[in-house]
Design brief:
37% helix; alpha/beta; globular; single chain; TIM Barrel; 301 residues; 8 strands
């Protein structure tokens, strides 16, 4: 498969939405005609609940690692561990649970697994101890300056770099990237955080502290409509939103192929709507929705 001819989606909820993906991936394989032929699943990412190295979102994934790994192997999908804690220190690197996860996920048959990283301390440790992974520079770094983003792309340690969503529409600068830099760029499509937010890094650091077990007050978002929480309809109104038409008509012709869908902290019903929007042909969305909703083993709310 030639990478330039396909769009690759990186999907949320590796540990969080096991039941949803067990049903969805089966449909994606058996009824490929329901889905756009120009897209594939590049990876599914996430972290278990109470994961010391976790970040980005407070993890609540409860599924056992061996079941998750088996599902990814069954469908030859790359699993990404989301270890994007920004505040790790040397003493945290010996965490037995996180190291055990790395040992389990480092090998995945024919498909290479990855780790999303926010800390350079952790990155160095992982590269030395678990060389079988590829590494992704996390959006929790909040790279809003294009020069900083370019510098991150030039780092050979990373196979992918996820810039802050506010760089999504910097088209003139994006066009100037080299072929290799474009292949390493992974855009966050559906963020609904306030475009003018100045507290995003503080929010991520608050989550990092909670993952480390530090007692601290919750970060209080002061963005407009923050009390409404995440809504996909609101994300679609964000100036940085990337829809399917944008992907096909703007980003793909420019040479970009990788797109990240957020949603680890959301309900599986909302994530399903994202899978329908980004991957499913409009006239087949009801069929997919019915197949998923009528699965008695699933609790989507």
């Amino acid at each position: 498969m030639i990478k330039e001819k396909k769009i690759y989606y990186h999907l949320p909820g590796l540990f969080e939405f096991y039941d949803l993906y067990e049903a969805f991936l089966s449909l994606f394989e058996k009824h490929r005609e329901y889905f756009y032929d120009w897209c594939e699943i590049g990876s599914i990412y996430g972290a278990p609940a109470d994961c010391l190295w976790g970040g980005g979102r407070v993890g609540f994934g409860e599924e056992k690692a061996d079941k998750v790994l088996s599902l990814m192997q069954r469908y030859n999908i790359s699993a990404r561990l989301t270890f994007s804690n920004l505040l790790l220190r040397e003493e945290h690197l010996s965490d037995r649970r996180c190291n055990r996860l790395c040992s389990q996920f480092e090998k995945n048959g024919r498909i290479k697994n990855g780790i999303i990283v926010g800390s350079d301390i952790l990155l160095k440790f992982l590269k030395d101890r678990y060389p079988g992974f590829y590494f992704v520079s996390s959006t929790t770094k909040v790279l809003t300056c294009f020069d900083d983003f370019e510098a991150e792309l030039r780092r050979p340690e990373f196979s992918y770099v996820v810039p802050d969503f506010r760089l999504n529409k910097k088209f003139e600068k994006l066009k100037s990237l080299s072929y290799d830099e474009k292949k390493k760029t992974e855009f966050l499509c559906n963020e609904c955080c306030f475009f003018g937010c100045n507290e995003r890094k503080n929010c991520y650091e608050n989550v990092s502290m909670k993952s480390l077990g530090v007692e601290c007050a919750d970060h209080i978002c002061t963005s407009p409509d923050a009390t409404e929480g995440y809504r996909f309809s609101k994300a679609m109104e964000n100036p940085a939103f990337i829809g399917t038409e944008d992907i096909l008509n703007i980003y793909k012709p420019m040479g970009f192929s990788d797109f990240k869908i957020e949603g680890r902290s959301l309900g599986s019903a909302v994530v399903l709507e994202m899978l329908l929007y980004y991957m499913t042909k409009p006239d087949c969305r009801l069929k997919v929705r019915e197949e998923i909703y009528l699965d008695s083993a699933l609790d989507l709310f």
